[in-house]
């Protein structure tokens, strides 16, 4: 299935953020899972790690992201590259929603706190 239209894009929520699944194995992708992430204004960060490198490309709004001990301002047109197995968090301190496209290789998982690794449902 080379084209995924808006009727095939499920929306999930986790910790107040919204994730719209665009491409994943269940929607025909074999190499990368791709989704739109939306962080509403004032949403606090959730520290987590990923088992594979993730890339976020900002579309709208502004967010602050911490990778390890460094903090970055993420603005439209910028790309944030999150290394695997590194503490990561992102939050939206601004007055408007932050939206980005996220890309994670198929099979990548998230780990929140001391929890077990899990595949985000939007990446299945």
TrEMBL record:
- Leader sequence range is none
Q: Which domain of life is it from?
A: Bacteria
The UniProt record lists the Cupin type-2 domain at 35-103
A Pfam family cross-referenced in the UniProt record is Cupin_2
Q: What is this protein called?
A: Cupin
